[in-house]
Amino acid sequence: MIQGNLIKFYIYSMALSNFERMIQLAEDIFSVKNDPDQLDVNEDVIERLQKIHPSTVSEYDDGNGPVAWVLIIPTTLELMKQFLENKISEKELFDLTPIGIKYEALYLCSAMVLEEYRRKGIAEKLAIQAIENIQKEHPVKVLFVWAFSKEGDLGSEKLARLTSLPLKKKSELY
User: Fold this and answer.
1) Which CATH class for the 2-169 domain?
2) What is the pLDDT of residues 99-130, one digit of tens each?
3) Angle between helix 150-163 and helix 122-135 axes, rounded to 10 deg
4) So where are the chain's domains?
């Protein structure tokens, strides 16, 4: 059975590009098409994220396309509070975040890594680098997360330890 699953994985991974596999992974994890309150990342969203800060979107490419994506959204303490108290959605958090101000909170929005690249520290390195880059220009006081998996929960806790920033959590779904 294991050998059969490995063969299916191999055929699947050879048939799709890394980019296509990353898109499928995002759909499998977050199901944004079925939840209008979640942020559906597209070209317009990425363009606005880049205006908020260039380090909001991070990617690791192994030479054959992306194998990891990390998305971090700087925002205000007030919007963080409203989000954590379920007064605004993830999409509203993004839409309401003003551009061109000093941000004090970082939303650890998502980190995705293709299966064969997991547990190598790729997402952690991308996230730390993004947080450090944002901190150079903004007085970040806190991280916050809405974890969709145990791995996301543990990863966000580790980032908080490594950055010495407090971590606030929205209720978990997993």
Assistant:
1) alpha beta
2) 999 999 999 998 888 888 889 999 999 999 99
3) 40
4) 2-169
